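Translate structure to sequence.
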């Protein structure tokens, strides 16, 4: 699993004030779960942001991001943000803020039976 460790550390620092943050390896990278809900992931040097469908539509029109596509299906609550759009703390804080805002209303994933 390849992901940018420097970006992971920046995300850890940004999420440090959240009560419950877990790190899980998934999507060929590292995912940060906040309150048992997927919040933000890193894959290679890009960040996958779970921001909700309404915010994703706005972000795709206005920001430097792209849709998440799995197979032939567009994942409507998610956008990928490329590393060059996360260079400043302000940019990272913007995206993490959108993720945390949606996290408050997001439904948790169903637990898989083992």
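Result:
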């Amino acid at each position: 699993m390849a992901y940018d460790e420097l970006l992971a550390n920046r995300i850890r620092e940004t999420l440090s004030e959240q009560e419950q943050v877990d790190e899980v390896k998934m999507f060929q990278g590292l995912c940060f779960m906040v309150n048992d809900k997927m919040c933000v992931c890193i894959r290679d040097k890009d960040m996958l942001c779970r921001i909700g469908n309404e915010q994703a539509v706005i972000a795709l029109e206005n920001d430097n991001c792209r849709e998440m596509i799995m197979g032939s299906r567009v994942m409507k609550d998610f956008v990928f943000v490329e590393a060059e759009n996360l260079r400043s703390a302000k940019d990272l804080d913007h995206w993490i803020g959108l993720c945390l805002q949606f996290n408050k209303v997001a439904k948790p994933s169903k637990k898989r039976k083992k």
